[in-house]
Amino acid sequence: MDPFVVVVLSLSCLLLLSLWKQSSKRGKLPPGPTPLPIVGNLLQIDVKDITKSLTNFSKVYGPVFTLHFGLERTVVLHGYEVVKEALIDRGDEFSGRGHFPVAERANRGYGVIFSNGNRWKEIRRFSLMTLRNFGMGKRSIEDRVQEEARCLLEELRKTEASPCDPTFILGCAPCNVICSIIFQKRFDYKDQQFLNLMERLNESTKILSTPWIQICNSFPPFIDYFPGTHNKLLKNIALTKSFILEKVKEHQESVDINNPRDFIDCFLIKMKKEEHNQQSEFTIENLVHTAFDLFGAGTETTSTTLRYALLLLLKHPEVTAKVQEEIEHVVGRNRSPCTQDRSHMPYTDAVVHEVQRYIDLIPTNLPHAVTSDVQFRNYLIPKGTTILTSLTSVLHDNKEFPNPEKFDPHHFLDEGGNFKKSNYFMPFSTGKRICAGEGLARMELFLFLTSILQNFNLKPLVDPKDLDTTPVVNGFASVPPFYQLCFIPI
Fold first, then answer.
1. Which residues pair with 474 in a beta bridge?
2. What is the pLDDT of residues 34-46, one digit of tens each?
3. Element (H or E) spanning 94, and its range?
4. 213-225: buried (b, 16+ CB within 10 Å) or exposed (e) per residue?
5. What are the sequence ranges of the domains in the chain?
6. How far is it, in rounded angstroms, from Cα 9 to Cα 235?
7. What superfamily does domain 47-489 belong to in CATH?
8. pLDDT tens digits, 319-371
9. Of these four, 29, 208, 347, 444, which has the most CB atoms within 10 Å of its CB?
10. How would you list the strands of the sheet with 386-390, edge to edge?
């Protein structure tokens, strides 16, 4: 058959499929802009700033509306009330993982982040239990974080107060903490293999946040047949998984069933116990992908938050001064900060919370999906429909946080200067799919930031008012702009 005829027929089939999918059950779905064949609503969405587009749509269609990303039908939840109702009040029904084609190409449904059904439940339960047994939120993990904080400070001293880009230094610390949990190993900050891992993670986060990835997710055939940065992303993921697989093979030769050293050992022991269970989810594939999920999620999100935090502290020296005053009063100079200090340091705690709220690290969350046909606010959402939850609409709610576009620690302080909790604080998402490493991340952010400010003054290279804190990309993640600073020893 003539290739041209094949192309025309293929496009015609896609057009008919698009029209059929968009019309089926349309009357029962939440309202939304009329989609075009094949492209859906993509021409009406600013792929460089999806959050802004979602806010504009919500003003027209309300807090629950339907968008079509290419052929993919997506229901968007915008605002605290609907996000809470779906992810918390009806958590089981909204606990599926929605379509994320680029990630699906890399993970193939394995691991803890992009898996579904029984596999997700078993792997998540095991991962949470194992992290807890290794002290997440307890003393042993705190010891690891404090040890890494000392290494971080030593590395910062080596800059000798000269201008430096903090990206890799701030990435190494949380990466080493998660490496100690997964591999029972920390790396020297100059280790080339370690630096390669860090570079791939950093590059992958930037690629994930580009408009091109949104296009690939909307038109999955692009992933397999078109050139583009998605190929670099998939290559980075494959290389990191190869590194993890090497570590797994090393562990297989030395694992002691009575003395597990780390997450990999615990998983291998579980595999051994279930070796006669044909339906077991504890396989080498799931081990590698779960370790990768923990490694990636436990490194880049925390390091990006730390990098953004220092930029905001440079921009607001009056905030930095108040934090250092509180550190001096509560911790002093003769010991390292510990997690117990946080309850006595309301202003510092408020600053850490405000950093996470303000930067809005993962604006549209990872996609969810409904696990059955769901009747939600007089609409019928069919089983498997992808659900996009706008965390921006929660973290930047102007009723809960007056002037939400302004960095202001008083968003988390009451009139007496005491720390004030907020149900709207959802940087780790919420509900059944809340980040498994939330406790670890919160501990790291507090201990790393207080340790740095206990030992160094932060000096910008330009006038603070000239510092730009606008993210350079704002897709999957909000990535801070490049900057340099000097760490001046106190």
1. 478
2. 999 888 888 888 8
3. none
4. bbbbbbbbebbee
5. 1-29, 47-489
6. 33
7. Cytochrome P450 (1.10.630.10)
8. 999 999 999 999 998 899 999 999 999 999 999 999 999 999 999 999 999 99
9. 444
10. 64-69, 72-78, 386-390, 368-369, 96-97
